[in-house]
Write a structure and sequence with these properties.
Elements (H helix, E strand, L loop, with lengths): L7 E3 L4 H11 L3 E4 L5 H7 L6 E4 L9 E4 L2 E5 L4 H6 L1 H6 L1 H9 L3 H4 L4 H7 L7 H6 L3 E6 L2 E6 L17 E8 L5 E8 L11 E9 L5 E9 L6 E2 L1 H7 L6 H14 L10 H24 L6
Parallel strand pairs: 1-3, 2-3
Antiparallel strand pairs: 4-5, 5-8, 6-7, 6-8, 9-10, 10-11, 11-12
Length: 297
């Protein structure tokens, strides 16, 4: 029987071999990591790659390891491994929380961090915490290796700024300053957060010795064409005491920064109000963690 969507399957043994295969395919290749998105898209006919490059035989791409100045997460690290990591839980709380609510448990055991970023979904669970943690994606390509801030990785919905032949190989997450706390929250249609986020919010706060906010980051999912930074909300917090009034002002500013749409899952108005509520809750959690001085020397 003739196959409707024939493709070749390659199993590179190194990153260099994978890059060469992708470059030779000229944009007609799909990258297989966990497969939770790629295989569905191929089955539904949304993608018809001439070549599928399976990365799973490349060694060390699934490592989660401490490095000087932070954490290096291999692109093939499973989301379940992030959720189970005591290191991630202790020092990158927003990422740990997001990993624990991405999809269902079976999905988390298949899905990878590189695949989630490569998908470029505006409803991504992992992108907002990686943005507030200041993470960088490591991409290997024909011209060598480069690092891309995660917040700059997605120029549009479902798109990345990766050049032809480039592939994400790792994510580097820097250590946070002392007295920094972070949190991630999302709400979906089903209990437990196992479905696509109606709204997702990640926030981080760094407190100075006087208790004022020295730095703040807020990232929003499912309320724009890409994951959004709520920069005015961040600016409203800097230099102010991290009291309830300041957090409420920032939450209002985050809601104003949202650009939600109405669809069959929720109205734009509901998503905007949900952005305000989740931002306030995430900031409260981040403040509590920062105040506990868990990272103080």
């Amino acid at each position: 029987m003739k196959r409707l969507h024939p493709f070749d399957l390659a199993f590179p043994a190194s990153v260099a071999e994978a890059v060469a295969l992708l470059a030779a395919a000229g944009g007609e290749a799909g990258v297989l990591a966990g497969g939770t998105d790629l295989l569905v898209d191929m089955k539904l006919g949304r993608l018809r790659p001439r070549l599928v490059v399976d990365l799973k035989r490349i060694p060390r791409l699934d490592r989660i390891e401490r490095v000087e100045g932070g954490l290096r997460i291999g692109a093939l690290a499973r989301v379940a491994a992030l959720a189970a990591s005591a290191v991630v839980q202790a020092d990158w709380r927003a990422l740990w929380q997001a990993a624990g609510v991405l999809g269902s448990p079976p999905i988390r055991h298949l899905a990878t961090i590189g695949g989630n970023l490569g998908r470029g979904s505006p409803a991504s669970d992992l992108t907002p915490p990686l943005v507030v943690h200041g993470a960088r994606a490591v991409a290997a390509g024909p011209q060598g290796e480069r690092e891309i801030p995660v917040e700059d990785l997605h120029p549009g919905p479902g798109a990345t700024c990766l050049a032809a032949g480039e592939v994400i190989t790792a994510i580097v997450v820097p250590d946070a300053p002392a007295r920094t706390g972070s949190a991630h929250l999302k709400l979906g249609k089903r209990a437990g957060g196992w479905d696509l986020a109606l709204v997702g919010v990640a926030a981080s706060l760094t407190l100075g010795a006087d208790g004022a906010v020295a730095a703040a980051r807020i990232a929003l999912a499912s309320v724009g064409p890409t994951v959004l930074r709520a920069r005015q909300a961040e600016e409203s917090l800097r230099g102010r005491a991290a009291d309830e009034a300041a957090l409420e002002v920032a939450a209002e500013a985050a809601a104003a920064a949202a650009r939600p749409i109405s669809d069959f899952r929720a109205t734009a108005e509901y998503r905007r109000e949900l952005t305000r509520v989740l931002t306030l809750r995430a900031l409260r959690q981040a403040r509590a963690e920062a105040s506990a001085e868990r990272r103080a020397p």
